[in-house]
Every structure is written in structure tokens, then in C-alpha cells.
Amino acid sequence: MKTAFSFAKLMPVIAAAACGTLMNTASAEALSLTGASVYDINAGGVYVGNGWDTTGGNGAANLYLLTTPNDASSFINSGNGATTSLNQDLSNPGSYTFYFRTDGGGFNWPTSLAGLNLFFNGANNTPGVSAYVPFNVVHPAVAAFGGNSLGINGGDVQAANSLSFSVGNTTLTLSNFTLFDYANPAAPNAVPDLVGVFNSAPNGLADYSGSFTVNVSAVPEPGQWAMMAGGIGLLAAMRRRKQAKQ
């Protein structure tokens, strides 16, 4: 005797297949933050030559990243030279916030805009994300920057003009960036003095401070969606055949 086909009975099978496929196909590609630079832009949108980067020993002042603001034990990069370089894994989808410090001594920030370049997967001559914000603003609007800018090897590079960077099925998007000078009372991380010009140690001069946040997501690619749909269709056909034989 034939029984009526029950789509409700098939739904758990389809749901399990769909979830399993999505979990397998939405895993992120290898993605690492391998460099960062912070630099000044004048009111006309032109990089004017001051800034810091995460490559030690190249003549430029150093940029130091931390996982916790004002906590000297949370430096991601440190010292001068090789230890100043970055190789921060961002492969797992999620939100990542980095705090940074630069030494205020010897620099007179004369401009109204701050720029940021982020470099990924060892492509350290080509920024993947470039942005600018108003200087000394608590919650600034972040905009893409596409002009000449500071690299991480002591020279200038063309900015990416993008807030997002993609590799394979993984996309990283910059959602926040702030920079404050050491004299601004609104700066959330203005004290204490944590770094010097070329070392991650106090030197008696107050720091510039800031932070940036990136969001990483991974989605199935078009071919993977097609494979999942085909698999679900096959499961449905097998279920119908089984019901027809009863």
C-alpha cells in the first residue's frame, strides 16, 4: 500500500544536508594582517609625509598594536626591527578590534585627517584596505582613501581606495578607525606613555593613540551553492522513490 508523500518528513534530511554543506563551504580562507601604517592627510586630501608603520629599522617611526588599550602586556608587535612586524591571523570569521600606539615626540600633527593602510598575506607593497577619518573625533565616519600614502617599507604607496579586502570566499571590512593626539582630553587612550619612537617602551613623552575594527565573514561561493542545491535535489528524489515503492 502506498503512503502519502510527507514533505515534513523530508525536511529534517534537507536541513541537515544544507547545514552540513554550509558549515563546510563557509570556512574562511587563510587571511593574516601582515602590516599597518598610520599617516597624516591634509584638509585637501593629500598625504603630507608624517606617519608610522609596523616595519622596524626602516627609518620611519614605529606603529605598535595591542589587544587591550593601555596594557603594556598586550603588545602584538614590539621592540624594533623584526619583532615590530605583524603576522596576525584573521582567518576565523568574526570581529577584531586592535588598539595602537605611536610616539608623539618629534611630530607636530598639523592636519585635520588621519589615514590608515592595512596589508594582508605578505603583500606588503599593496594595501588591501585604506581609510581616513577626521582627527581627534570619538566616533568618526570612516571613508575610503585612494591617494598617495605611507607604506610599511619606508616608502610611499598608492592607497587601496577601499574599506574591504577579499581573498577567496572571505571578506574583511573595516568598520571603525580613530586617532587622537596626546594632548586631546577626549582621547580614550591618551595615557599612560607606553612607547617610544623606535621601541615599545616608555620614553617620557605622551603617545598618539587609536584603534580600528575589522569584520571578517566567509560565504559559500556560487559553485558551492549549486553543489548544495544539487545534493538537496538528489535527496528529495531518493525520498520520493522510496515512498513510491511502499
Automatic annotation (TrEMBL):
The keyword Signal applies. Keywords: Signal. It holds the Pfam family PEP-CTERM. It comes from the Bacteria. Residues 1-17 form the signal peptide. Residues 218-242 form the Ice-binding protein C-terminal domain. InterPro entries: Ice-binding_C (IPR013424). This is PEP-CTERM sorting domain-containing protein. It comes from Rugamonas rivuli. The keyword Signal applies.
